[in-house]
Fold each of these.
Amino acid sequence: MTKTITDVICPFCGTLCDDIEVIVSDDGKKLLEVNNACVIGTEKFLHSQSSDRITRPRMHQEDGSWKEISYDEAVEYTAQMLAKARKPLLFGWSSTNCEAQSVGNEIAEMSRACCDNTAATCHGTSLIAIQDVGLPSCTLGEIKNRADRIIFWGCNPAHAHPRHMSRYSIFPRGFFTGKGQMSRKLIVVDPRVTDTAKMADMHLQVEQGKDYELLDALRVAFKGEWLPDVVAGIPGEKIREAADVMKSGRFGIIFFGMGVTQTLGKNHNIDAAIAVTKDLNEYTKFSIMPMRGHYNVTGSGEVFAWQFGFPYAVDLTRGFARYNPGDTSTIDLLTRGEIDAMLTIGSDPGAHFPISAVKPIAKMPSVCIDPHLTPTSGVSKLHVPVAFNGVETGGNCYRMDNVPIDCRKVVEPPEGMLTDEEFLIKVRDRLKQLKEAA
Amino acid sequence: MSEYIIKNGHVFDPVQGIKGDKKDISIKDGKIVDKVSSSAKVIDAKDKTVMAGAVEIHAHIAGPKVNLGRIYRPEDKLFSCTPTHGMERMGGGASIPTTFKTGYEYAKMGYTTAMEAAMPPLFSRHVHEEIRDTPIIDEGAFPVFGNNWFVMEYLKNHEIENTAAYCAWLLRATKGYAIKIVNPGGTEAWGWGLNCLSIHDPVPYFDITPAEIIKGLIEANEYLGLPHSMHIHPNNLGNPGCYETTLDTLKLAEGFKTKNKFGREQVMHLTHTQFHSYKGTNWGDFESGAKEVTDYVNKNKNITIDTGNVTLDETTTMTADGPFEHHLCGLNHLKWANVDVELETAAGVVPYIYSPNISVCAIQWAIGLEIPLMMKDPMRCYITTDHPNAGPFTRYPRVIKWLMSKKARDAQVNAFKHKDKVLSQTSIGSLDREISLYELAQMTRAGPAKSLGLSAMCGGLKPGMDADVAVYNFNPDKPVANPDDIETAFSRCAAVFKSGIQVVSNGEIVSTGNKRTLWVDVHVKDNPQVMRDINEKFVKFYSMTQNNYEALGHHFVPNPYALEVDATQA
Amino acid sequence: METVTITMKNAPALYLEADNVSPDAFAGKTAAQIAELSVHEGNTTSTLGKYFEVIGNAGATAADTKIVVKGDVKKVKYLGFKMTAGELVIEGSTDLYVGAWMKGGKILAKGNIEAFAATAMKGGELIVEGNAGNYLGAAYRGDWRGMSGGKILVKGNAGSDIGMYMTGGEIIVNGNIDVHALTHAEGGRLVVKGNAKSKVGGQMIDGEIIIFGSIDTMMPGFKPVSEAELEVDGAKAKFSHFIGDMGERHKKRKGQIVYGNLYKKI
């Protein structure tokens, strides 16, 4: 017999769909079927059932092979590493729950480490912009119920956040948007003709690296001032037309992603987009929202902020918190040789960082906490597999619009496996002993 | 559990009418008791002032907009963070402290209970995570109701029983404490970039007025008999001339009498009154309306207020009055953050510098002090800074200094660049009153506890009450040589007890105690229609499922304390 | 003026945070006392004397104190942090935060310097003989109050984000600059003898930018208004005059609308 679990939250992307249905075996040990999730989410749940799961920690040997060790031995290595390190880094945090993030913070404080999350290569630049100019925003339900002007700038939700448009931004028939997609106009800004761009009422194929100029031109157009003939590859008349489409709506939203957060100008692009949004509030109602990638990078930012005061790139080495991306951010710390030990959890820097930042990880004492075999686990000294958060353990997570949703456990992890939180609690307690003995 | 005896202190307890007598306070098993055994630990309170732990009735200390403030103001922490030491985790934030720092700072000043002033219900999990991570002090949170779609739809047809059933459901779903109203109707209008600046402006589409929302929620609150009254931040905050909107709002309470089992006497609590007491027509002729507002509240005893004192600091404003924050950004051009919350509310955040060189700020400072100095009943007027809006809560000792010492007030007035304007536009120069310690105890302990419906539990030192006690290095028998000594004494307690555990000794944290989350569990008659309406709105309009909205497991509220309310016979 | 010479003798394995290497921290101290000042390598606290040889006593005040830093200090951060007077000479190249939050005094950096130099500078002088990194004379994260006074001269090139949120003071770069110059500025002056790339003066409200070389891409918010002959740093030349950022809000001074001014040599 089987059990159907409803209201399940998908632990993959920042869309954090919470209407997933999972069918499990009666004894709760096997996950059989997933309904309502997109292709990526479905696979997130199903792949937890692979027969070749690594279920115990493994230590990288001198000759490059791996030796299985116990969780207790893994705890010992991790705690010793952090106790001895003069500038350790605890990185990642984006694919685990807030409870684990909080224990991680205790560890970081105790070991006087740096701690950072995947915003470092993603929406960290958005956070920098928000720190400079603020953020007029809203929850996703407001889009569903009110929005009639949707702009996707530098993002491709058709691929990266597959159910975003059907749950929130384009198709839903909300309270004031009874005609669904027909009551909305979509503008897509992207140098590429993506699947999202193909749906747009207006596609501005901006010249790469010139989003900042185009955003400035929109602000100029709002004010009816002089514009050059072409800006960022877009003709002036088209810019004015886009400005009019935005101004003429009742409630607009700009969603944005890596196309602007990690291209030339970075935080300045977001800064300018926020300025556009602010300007539009003189004429109508407009908001802006980052399309957060990992399902709980937002949560990591929230927990860092209420406990330490900053959302990422936090340096605790002096016993109090300091923050300055460019100095305290992970890629800079790694490429400049500032770090002497690294713990990675809930992320895969080995896959996403420049190789000059990955090589140092291979040379220093390092731990990778991840259920998968990844490029990061491959270069770390110790690999600690854990239960899949959001599948085999629950815990609080924050959606891209900062709304907190408590993920559910739907199936048992493989026998004897620990969760992130359980492993980190053991590390914390052992580290405390080591610090007190010193 | 431990026994303590706090010996020979000068006790100020309005609950028992003790006005400075030398009395011993005995603590056993978390409560105040008549006496303890000889093995009780002795706390020497000779020449010191002893009061119950203070009660913060309104501060923004936990939740999404507070954290948005932290995230977007790294400069609020530059060079001012405190390191890990002793029992304390590291902390930071001059105007928006991190959660650990919040708990420590309140405790060191003798505060033992605090209310988070505005919880957007959709975000209740966030609010509770931060409350859980705020050590020592008991906390509760007020969900906001004044722009809620359910409330507006029910009250348009004056369906009080349905409104009450919905309120009860929401208080349980969010483990909330009271019915909070912020800019009623106006924040829903803000969903379209609009506002309601008077109590008669209809809300777009919902076609109900703020007056109807306010009256309806007073009725619903009394129908249920909740521990606290409805708690309101009226329309038109912060605009010259807004005192008229305030009086209109206050008048809506006329004729209402409370019905509750918690000792509460008011039907309306008006919050951060300073921001709502402005006369004049523009920033040029801006003047104080404190007299008009306090005259009314003095005469109408079914109202309580808190002050919202300006402390003359660089701080961060944050409120569910979304349109106001947009307006403020238009005035000072500083970074503006905003979050509209589906079906419920909104929030805005903007930094603000209350400079003593700007006449408007100086007048605001004066209004904040006029209010408590003109209020006749200290049991109905409480000290707040609407933290962090008018200033950080860590400035309470400074506000106390200004209230207790005319000399200190005069020194500040003389330091203003536009002293003449402050004196002409307010009556601060002519107010000689100095608040006594007994009155201070009324305004910071017994009064707020009673208003919140907690008078059986805290705010006093009567045997049977929780052993929340604060001992200050302030000798009531010695004349004050320098008013700054008042500020010093109230900044760091000699000793603080929370639920019978000593948490502060000589200004340092010695235990993080076992804080509780206070919430109100209301039982009403089954109401299938409201349950169906709730279900329908989740299916059609919310972006989260109802089951996930109602999920508030133990890991969010590890130590709950529910005040039970039986409204089934209402 | 008394001179204290510190020479790197014991290189750190990681990086050194030398916030105490400033005339203000040294003032009134003997060499032995200076050697006892704390430095930080990661999460360990040590003393200056463990890494540097310290020779000479400081003057009685910061103004009377000159510091010469010798040896390889490429992994030393915060030289000149928060100084208010006196002199600091760095013989070679160094790392981040040179003269960050300085209010006065003179710094001469003979090599290259890295990012975040002269953060929120209020006064004094910073001269860099080599290249400067990113965020030269910029504001701290989130702060709308950036560099408000003082002078910076870079003889080589400078990086991106120069003078962000600048409100006063002057920055001169003899070489080239990278993207984003004087973004969000509300005052101050930038002179670039070499070339700029793009995003010059974005979101500027007030202030002056003079570029002698090329600008790859102009901000659309800069409107050409006229030509002007200016004397800059002793030399006269003809410039195209643009005002902007026309997309940004504008202030008024004595009833007149104020714009940022951008001059590009013709």
Amino acid sequence: MSLFVSAVVSGIGIGFLYGIMGLSIALLYKSTGIISFAQPPLAMLLAFMGYRYISAGMPLYAAILAMVLTGALLGVLVYWLAFVPQEQHGIFNLILRSIALALIVEQAVVYLLSEGEPFLFPKMWEGGPITLAGINVPRQNLVIIVVTLVLLAALLVFFRHTRLGLLLRAVADSPGVVRLLGVNTRLLMTAAWAVSLIACAVVALLAAPISLVSSAMFAPYVLYAFTAFILGGISSWGGAIAGGIIVGVSSNVAVVYSGTEIAALITFAILGAILILKPAGLFGTSVRERL
Amino acid sequence: MDSDGRERMEYLGNLIATRRRPALRRALVPALALVLAAAGCGSNDDSGNGTGSVPGVTEDKIIVGASSPLTGPPAAGCARVHGGAQAWFDKVNAEGGVHGRKIEWEILDDAYDLARAGANARRLADGSYFAIFGGCGSIQPPAIVPVAERAGVPYLFPMAQVPDLYLPAGKKWTYAFSPSWATMFSSVVSWGLQQKGPGSVAVLFTQNAGIESAIEAVKEATEAAGGRYLGEQVVPATTSDWTPIVLRLKELNPDYVVTNQSVELALKLMQAAEEQDFEPNISYLNTISLMADQFIQGIKNPDGSTRLDGKVISAYQVALPSDPSNAECVEAAKVTVPDMAPDGNLMGGCNSARWFVELLERAGPDLTRERLLEVISTVSNEKLSPGAVPADFSNGRHLGPSEIYIYELDGDWVPAGSAKLTDTK
């Protein structure tokens, strides 16, 4: 029994990371309609920048703040440089740009920053695991859970109780109406990218102590993050977190009892089953289109 | 195209022109020109950068190439292998080269990809290079060996642990610096169980070329040494969470865990193991991949000890950087790659280059590919480099080492003996 509980606990920890990555994708999709494949490599870039800040002598918590601010700035830059020019050519074009951006960022990091990797990244809470009811819970897992819940609470407040957040929700639901009301949608898109990249910075600083900072650190996350995004209902950022937990727990339990060879098979079989039963995902809503 | 080729083409062109099938003639002549041009380009030893009849050898240069990862996940470790080899070449060149010829070594990036390695091999075999030397990674050699053998290009001493370099017997141009994973692990497991006592053995491998035969070899070696084989886990390199893998190991409670992880994956494994209070009862058994400074630094305690002192055994065909036999390699590396702390990878690259240079010296000033092969075949259980195990290429052997050095972790890697490679697979 303790083996099962240990697998579930570790699955929740990694699931939250998949979920935050999925959340960053969902945030962007909900606000801009773009499904961006660039989030994992951008998170990797932010991890490298965090490592550089710490290597330059910045205290850990200052480096964390700097990473978050860098994430916001990076989001603004990415949007204006890669997605604003010629944006009238449709969503498919923009999605393809995100794929190109992902490849460019990945190769740029490999070429410019990766020599000597992997790099150790300090944990936010040093020390051995905490034993709870006979189960070893790594401190970093507890940090992940707490930070994710804080992030979710902050997003809840932002989207429900701030003008910018409400406008982002409005532009996601009815972009045309928002434009007619004279709202600067360009500014809203910029804000959406900034918030999305802040989420990427958060996943980078939570994952880096476990995954080590390397150019391949988020390669394993891509498939699972998108699975979390889809499972959650693609437009629900809370659903992405829930989807991440389902992916993390099912994958880890499958590895423990069946081995890594069929763990992915089991995880995606669960994805398939959920989408058959609930095509819009766990928290998504079906949309009717008039043809 | 040479004058013979032009004459041949002219004769055939005239022959075809007299035939009474103008359409066929129109198609045949250009096709024939292409065939003759290709034959002309391939049949002449004067092609490429060679002077006289030896490709890649000029009056003042020996040009060799390699296919190796310059980018991608293994690039960091491979950069050290390259750095070590280049350091030795730079030292030799600074002292006048080999019989007055300086060694020029060009590395083509294959990004640890089989298809790219094959394309690189075809380029390296095009007549511009005297030999394919070195390279890093076990995925690529199966693509390079057939090209080298067909083209008659020496393919020497890559840092790769696959039997394709020396098996099956009958190869002419390919010679290995490293035994296969199967042979290495078989030897390490035998040594470990004999020295530390028989016990239960679990395998934890990252997917890589040759691991199926490595697993079989571990199983056989365990049983031969009186141990008990518990089973294996093969994990993809893209594993994001090592905790469930460690939990499975913990359930097995093995005395030994045989691992092949790279430094990055090993650090993640060890971190997850520490979080779950797991370590094998006796030791991890590893070969080569952890003989890197990055691994030591990743598990170092502030007092200089490591978290795994006495719990890791590894094996390599090269001595440690601190060993006096590698003093020259360490000094050479300080000049060429001063930012790289000397470690196993650096010493591996340097010693493989020393083997190559020693053989070039013995081949003499009238260097040809065939002469080099003759010299290689005379090497019989002797040290081509002080920092590496003795080499034996006699009696048709294409694998140099017949033994490996064993190391234990105690603050750093410490020599613990040597093991004969009893079973070459």
